[in-house]
Design goal:
The structure holds two protein chains of two kinds.
Chain A (H helix, E strand, L loop, with lengths): L2 E4 L4 E4 L4 E3 L1 E4 L5 E7 L5 E7 L5 E4 L2 E4 L9 E3 L8 E8 L7 E3 L3 E6 L1
Parallel strand pairs in A: 2-12
Antiparallel strand pairs in A: 1-4, 3-9, 5-6, 5-10, 7-8, 8-9, 10-11, 10-12
Chain B lengths: L3 E4 L2 E4 L5 E7 L5 E7 L5 E8 L2 E5 L6 E7 L2 E6 L8 E8 L9 E2 L3 E5 L1
Parallel strand pairs in B: 2-11
Antiparallel strand pairs in B: 1-3, 3-8, 4-5, 4-9, 5-6, 7-8, 9-10, 9-11
Classes of the chains: A mainly beta, B mainly beta.
C-alpha cells in the first residue's frame, strides 16, 4: 500500500541554521504531496503542497520539490527561527475522490536561540 | 472565528464509559474527517464524510460511530471505552474530497481512558 517515510527526529538546530527534513513516499500513480506543521497544543496546518512532478511548493521560507524519480519531497529552509520549532508531517493524497491523506510519522524540530 | 472547532479539548474518563466528541466547521466545506494521533504522534484516518455521506471507514472498531447531522458537523461517539483508545483525536475538513484539497484541522481532543 501507499506510505510515507520521514527522517527520524528530533532535529535540533541553532537559529539561522539550514534545515532539511527528508521525506520519501511509496505510491501507485501520481499522488499529491503535502507538508503540514503542528505547533504545540494545536492542530495541523498546511505548510505547502505540490501536485505533480517537478512542482515546487513554498511558503514562509520553506520549500519542497516533488521528485518523481527519487519519490521524495524533502522540506528545506535556509535560515530557521526559534518560532519554527514544531512537528512537521509529510503526507500524500492518493488520486481518488476520498481526500484521504497518508501521513509520515512526523519529525520534531527544535530550534535553539 | 475558529474555522474547525472541537469540543471538549480534554476528556478524561474510565474504561467502559461512552463518550462523544463534537466537531463543527464554519468554512463552508462539504467534506469532514476524523483522524487519530497516537502517543508517537502517528496520524491515521478513521472516517470521512462528504455531504453527510460516509466515504471512508478505515478498520476502526464498531465501538466508534461517526454521525454527521449536516455538512458543518461531524461528531464521534465512542462506546465501551478501552485503554487503547487514549489518543488525540483530530477533526478536519476540506472543500471537496479530491486529492488536491488541503485539510483544515481542529486543535484536537485529548482523550485519556483510565
Amino acid at each position: 500500500g501507499n506510505s510515507v517515510t520521514q527522517m527520524e527526529g528530533p532535529v535540533t538546530l541553532s537559529e539561522e541554521a539550514f534545515l532539511t527534513i527528508n521525506c520519501t513516499y511509496t505510491a501507485t500513480g501520481y499522488p499529491s504531496l503535502f507538508w503540514y506543521v503542528q505547533y504545540p497544543g494545536e492542530g495541523l496546518q498546511l505548510l505547502l503542497k505540490a501536485t505533480k512532478a517537478d512542482d515546487k511548493g513554498s511558503n514562509k521560507g520553506f520549500e519542497a520539490t516533488y521528485r518523481k524519480e527519487t519519490t521524495s519531497f524533502h522540506l528545506e529552509k535556509g535560515s530557521v527561527q526559534v518560532s519554527d520549532s514544531a512537528v512537521y508531517f509529510c503526507a500524500l493524497s492518493e488520486r481518488s475522490n476520498t481526500g484521504k491523506l497518508i501521513f509520515g510519522q512526523g519529525t520534531t524540530l527544535q530550534v535553539k536561540p | 472565528d475558529t474555522a474547525v472547532s472541537q469540543t471538549p479539548k480534554y476528556l478524561v474518563t474510565q474504561m467502559g464509559n461512552d463518550k462523544s466528541i463534537k466537531c463543527e466547521q464554519n468554512l463552508g466545506h462539504d467534506t469532514m474527517y476524523w483522524y487519530k494521533q497516537d502517543s508517537k504522534k502517528f496520524l491515521k484516518i478513521m472516517f470521512s464524510y462528504n455531504n453527510k455521506e460516509l466515504i471512508i471507514n478505515e478498520t476502526v472498531p464498531n465501538r466508534f460511530s461517526p454521525k454527521s447531522p449536516d455538512k458543518a458537523h461531524l461528531n464521534l461517539h465512542i462506546n465501551s471505552l478501552e485503554l487503547g483508545d487514549s489518543a488525540v483525536y483530530f477533526c478536519a475538513s476540506s472543500q471537496g474530497s479530491s486529492y488536491n484539497s488541503p485539510l483544515h484541522f481542529g486543535n484536537g481532543t485529548r482523550l485519556t481512558v483510565t
